From TrEMBL:
GO cellular component term of the entry, any: extracellular matrix
Taxonomic placement: Eukaryota, Fungi, Fungi incertae sedis, Zoopagomycota, Kickxellomycotina
Enzyme class: hydrolase
Keyword Repeat: yes
Its EC number(s): 3.1.4.50
GO MF, any single term: glycosylphosphatidylinositol phospholipase D activity
Protein location: Secreted
InterPro entries: FG-GAP (IPR013517), Int_alpha_beta-p (IPR013519), Integrin_alpha_N (IPR028994), PLPC/GPLD1 (IPR029002)
FG-GAP repeats: 433-494
Entry protein name: Phosphatidylinositol-glycan-specific phospholipase D
Catalytic reaction list: a 6-(alpha-D-glucosaminyl)-1-(1,2-diacyl-sn-glycero-3-phospho)-1D-myo-inositol + H2O = 6-(alpha-D-glucosaminyl)-1D-myo-inositol + a 1,2-diacyl-sn-glycero-3-phosphate + H(+)
Every Phospholipase C/D domain range: 48-200
Transmembrane regions listed in the UniProt entry: none
Pfam family, one: Zn_dep_PLPC
Length: 805
């Protein structure tokens, strides 16, 4: 083996270094396009690819591809970042661009089938794994950057927080996204070296009439490896500078339907199934991995390496001091030299002086419920109900990405009566509700993204309502369904839903592109329970994600309370719908002797600006930096009518992301702004620390009067105080799940005191991502706290803690 030269990367300019082969190597500063995010997508897709066997004809050798991917992670991870290899590096931009499209995969498969026969050699398997990685990158980029795609993640950021500044939004997404990925997880699954099938890659390009050199391939891929390892070591320390730039990135990084981690991973998994068929048969499948193929893209460049070198090079070092490149006849191996991080002041958090206690000091009984399945989304939503009228209550816990062994469709809702303390695998102590389908479009419906227990048909027995917002697929104009399971006296819930409210076929179609299933609520109108569905990502006219709320009343037939149908009785929108308003993100209600009031949160970003000339260019000048609203509606003349709203000006704090009404004599409504910034006298800005406001809504003289009596602020940078809220008879619980390096805290605010609690076993788990107080008649209540990123039992699987006396 011989060692190949590595260029010296020292700053933003071009530098020349003489290699052992006797000629100069120019290196230009640039970066991989989000190498950490791309690898995270590939890692999650690998898990689902291992687990699922789609019921489709023609997938003959799938188990072989599962083994190949698992045995060749060094090549898979190299392929996952490969398409960005040549941007601004030795003039290989065109070659890098070509690797982002299906013709590169096609040429790679043709090369594989012509040059390697079964049984595959180790070199062939490494090349196959590399191709799977390249396909993962292609799919992720299309969603992440929203290429020719309405409502992609980049477009969301550009049109909200960045005033149509494409470059600013692109920098935030690629650089900030990678740094934030390191905050979420330590990325320990990343390999210490990459195996790059150099000779195969050169021949694939030759098929496409593109000439590249091995030395340029190795040198440019070295930058990618350096960026990946730097993010793994330093990303969590560097992200803090991006916290002030975007609350949307933090809030929607996992969950956004077109470009969040889950959506990219799901689409990659689907792509890999097509790719396996293609390699096996040699015939290109009807379904394509990319929606908009071979579309020219602009501004692919990102600046991860530049950021790392300018902000952390003293801690990380020079490329040639850190990276080692070795070559064999066919392959290139890039690996890490011995490395020690220079630990400096931790700038990721401003510590609070608030004294906190272990939650175990407050409750003498605790049950921890968990799942062994990675990335399940366990802790997304919980409820409690008596579904058979027996007085026996079941706790409902949803995991919208949990994939049961007996089903081909992911998304599980668990029902358990377990009261034992200690740690319990939810699969061993519960019954399940799943959707059953043999179609690939329903494999990941996000079933369980929301759950609601209410007596919707007004027969005196609790019913279970479940949202599945990704029904029809994340690329569909109309997405999502709501499934209703009626409780029955002495029988409980049926295995299949009694009624389905679908985004495709309902009375809402005249309003525009409907996306439902994320938000469910129930309110009483004149003593009759109704189903309220929030659809905050729905498009109204040309207003993307303006949002709406639909109110349904169940009409029973004369024979059976479960045999009727739902009737749409009211549709709520803002008076002048604006794009990205996200009206319907949260819903609460209060009632008095005169009126039924529905309160709706619209935390989305509305930004007004004008263009002014300065320095020979147009500069956007913000008039109102942002504006989020909470609306109040009163039931009048058989419909809800908007009467008032409360507005929060200032940097995007997601005011109204959560509204909660406490069913007590105070009639208080708590409004959360979990990403709100707090400015303090000592000159320190608590970016995305979060706030919660206490408000009272009163009717009279034909309108609603709103008074805000108290405001509580978080005191941790990126803490997201107010991400969850719950009331009990003694006071208010507020979650702050991102504080203390994602360990999380919860706070109790009583009449005369304020207390802080942590979970001693919740390192990095986001303790407080969900809080509810679940009440059982005649048997007290229990505090339920979600830990959405708990990796104690399986990576980022999530867990739920139940606390009671």
């Amino acid at each position: 083996m011989e060692t190949s030269p590595i260029g010296r990367i020292l700053g933003e300019k071009k530098y020349i270094t003489r290699g052992k082969f006797g000629f100069d190597l120019p290196i230009i500063i640039v970066s991989a396009c989000g190498p950490a995010v791309h690898n995270e997508v590939s890692e999650r897709a690998t898990f689902w690819f291992n687990k699922h066997v789609p019921n489709r004809v023609g997938l003959k050798d799938r188990s072989e591809y599962i083994r190949i991917i698992n045995d060749n992670k060094k090549s898979l991870q190299a392929g996952t970042v490969f398409p960005d290899w040549g941007y601004e590096c030795w003039g290989n931009d065109y070659a890098a661009e070509a690797a982002h499209w299906t013709p590169f995969i096609k040429a790679g498969i043709e090369h594989l089938r012509e040059n390697y026969q079964k049984p595959y050699t180790k070199s062939a398997e490494e090349f196959i794994a590399f191709l799977f990685g390249v396909a993962a990158h292609q799919v992720s980029d299309e969603l992440w950057h929203g290429v020719r795609m309405d409502e992609g993640f980049l477009k969301l950021l550009r049109e909200t927080e960045y005033l149509d500044d494409f470059n600013g939004a692109h920098d935030l997404l690629d650089v900030g996204g990678d740094f934030y990925m390191r905050i979420i997880d330590d990325l320990s699954y990343l390999e210490s070296s990459w195996k790059i099938p150099s000779k195969d890659i050169i021949k694939v390009y030759k098929r496409m009439n593109i000439d590249i050199t091995r030395i340029s391939l190795e040198t440019c891929m070295t930058r990618q490896y350096y960026a990946m390892q730097a993010i793994k070591k330093l990303g969590n320390r560097l992200f803090i500078k991006y916290a002030k730039k975007s609350s949307i990135l933090v809030e929607k990084f996992d969950s956004y339907f077109r470009g969040g981690l889950y959506s990219m991973s799901v689409q990659t998994y689907k792509c890999w199934n097509y790719l396996a068929d293609w390699i096996t048969t040699g015939e290109r499948p009807e379904c394509n991995c990319l929606v908009n193929d071979k579309v020219g893209r602009k501004n692919r460049k990102t600046t991860v390496i530049k950021k790392i070198l300018s902000e952390g090079k003293e801690q990380f070092g020079r490329v040639e001091d850190f990276v080692q490149v070795s070559r064999t006849i066919k392959d290139t191996i890039i690996s890490q030299k011995e490395f020690k991080l220079k630990v400096t002041k931790n700038i990721s958090e401003i510590m609070s002086s608030t004294e906190c206690s272990d939650i175990s000091s407050l409750y003498n009984k605790q049950t921890l419920l968990y799942t062994m399945q990675k990335y399940s989304g366990f802790a997304s939503s919980v409820a409690i109900g008596d579904f058979d009228g027996s007085g026996n209550f079941k706790t409902v816990l949803a995991a919208p990405f949990h994939c049961p062994e007996e089903s081909n469709t992911c998304g599980t809702v668990f029902l358990t009566q377990n009261n034992s303390t200690g740690e319990n695998d939810i699969e061993n102590i519960s019954s399940k509700i799943n959707l059953q389908s043999n179609t690939t479009i329903l494999q990941f419906p996000k079933f369980g993204a929301s759950v609601l227990v209410a007596d919707i048909n007004n027969d005196g027995i609790d019913d279970l309502i479940i949202g599945a917002p990704w029904i029809n697929g994340v690329l569909s104009e109309n997405m999502g369904s709501v499934y209703v399971y009626f409780g029955r006296k002495g029988k409980g819930l049926a295995e299949i839903p009694d009624t389905i409210i679908d985004s495709h076929n309902n009375e809402l179609s005249s309003y525009g592109s409907v996306k439902m299933g994320e938000q469910l609520f129930s309110t009483s109108i004149g003593g009759i329970n109704t189903l309220v569905i929030g659809a905050p990502q729905s498009k109204l006219g040309n207003a993307r994600q303006a949002g709406l709320v639909a109110v349904y009343k169940y009409i029973s037939n004369d024979i059976d309370s479960t045999g009727g149908k739902f009737k749409l009785i009211s549709v709520l929108t803002s008076k002048n719908p604006k794009k990205y308003e996200n009206f319907g993100s949260s819903i609460a209600s209060i009632s008095n002797s005169k009126d039924d009031i529905l309160i709706v949160g619209a935390p989305g970003f509305i930004q007004n600006s004008k263009k002014e000339f300065g320095n020979n260019r147009q500069i956007p000048i913000m008039e109102n930096e942002s504006r989020s609203k909470v609306y109040g509606f009163v039931w009048k003349n058989n419909k809800f009518v908007e009467e008032t709203s409360i507005v929060d000006f200032g940097h995007q704090g997601l005011f109204g992301k959560l509204v909660v009404s406490c069913k007590d004599s105070s009639q208080a409504v708590f409004i959360a702004a979990p990403a709100r910034h707090k400015e303090v006298d000592d000159g320190i800005d608590y970016w995305q620390s979060g706030s919660v406001a206490k408000s009272n809504w009163e009717t009279g003289f034909g309108n609603i009067t709103v008074k805000v009596s108290e405001m509580w602020d978080g005191s941790h940078v990126l803490g997201h105080f107010g991400e969850s809220i719950a009331c009990d008879s003694e006071g208010l619980w507020i979650g702050e799940p991102l504080s203390y390096n994602n360990d999380g805290r919860i706070y109790f605010i009583g009449k005369n005191d304020r207390k802080c609690y942590y979970n001693g076993n919740s390192k990095g788990s986001r303790f407080g991502s969900l809080i509810q107080v679940l009440k059982k008649e005649n048997s007290g209540s229990m505090l339920v706290v979600g830990q959405s990123h708990d990796s104690t039992f399986s990576r980022l699987a999530g867990s739920i803690s139940l606390f009671y006396q």
